[in-house]
Amino acid sequence: MSISSFALQTNFNVKNALASSTLIDLMKVRKETIRDCLADYENEEHRLEKVLRINGVEYINDSKAVNVNATYYTLESVDTSIVWIVGGVDKNNNDYEPLLPFVNEKVKAIICLGQNNDKIINSFANIVDYMIETESMEDAVKIAYKLTNEGESVLLSPACASYDLFENYEDRGKQFKEAVRQL
Q: How many domains does the chain have?
């Protein structure tokens, strides 16, 4: 099976699929069954979930990315210029340094969504052209809409827990999707 036939094309999903299919093959599962699964697999809700394309801008819900490592792989996988919605509760004393190469290369604006954004601002203020703070998903999405152009993406990938403004990551993701649908 060609990798281009995989339903999920991000680097980390391809690596996971290759590892999984190797193990499953060792368990003597039919190759046709493995191929069918890899070709039809869908992301779970709130994990690199493509919400809508509006005026040529892709809106991506990655609310489940509640730590820097998850956001790292998300930023790696998006191939367009990004307006990044990030922030929340920094419960693990986040080190944002691993994200710097992707932010430098791909992120044109950061919208901080949280009650304490100091660490995010200090980490990225000198790298991006726009750094905006908000405490409302509706405002974050409206600002992102104004900052993007055709061929770019708006990415909710918080790298933080959601408990400052939302019940949980699912609530945060649902509010993102609703705000996008209201544009």
A: 2
Residue (of 105, 166, 168) closest to 140 by Cα position: 166
Distances (CA, A) of 83 to 39, 110, 149: 30, 6, 10
Residue in 109, 81, 181, 168 with CA at minimum distance from that of residue 138: 181
Q: What number is the average pLDDT over the span 94-112?
A: 97
Q: What is the pLDDT of residue 31?
A: 72
pLDDT of residue 180: 98
For every residue of the chain, DSSP letters joined together read --GGG-S--SHHHHHHHHHHHHHHHHTT--HHHHHHHHHH--PPTTSSEEEEEETTEEEEE-TT--SHHHHHHHHHH--S-EEEEE-SB-TT----GGGHHHHHHHEEEEEEESS--HHHHHHHTTT-SEEEEES-HHHHHHHHHHH--TT-EEEE--SSBSTTTSSSHHHHHHHHHHHHHT-
Tens digit of pLDDT for each residue in 119-148? 999 999 999 999 999 999 999 999 999 999
State the residue range of the domain holding 25.
3-40
pLDDT digits 0-9 by tens, 42-86: 667 888 899 999 999 999 999 999 999 999 999 998 999 999 999
Q: Do residue 97 and residue 54 come from a single domain?
A: yes
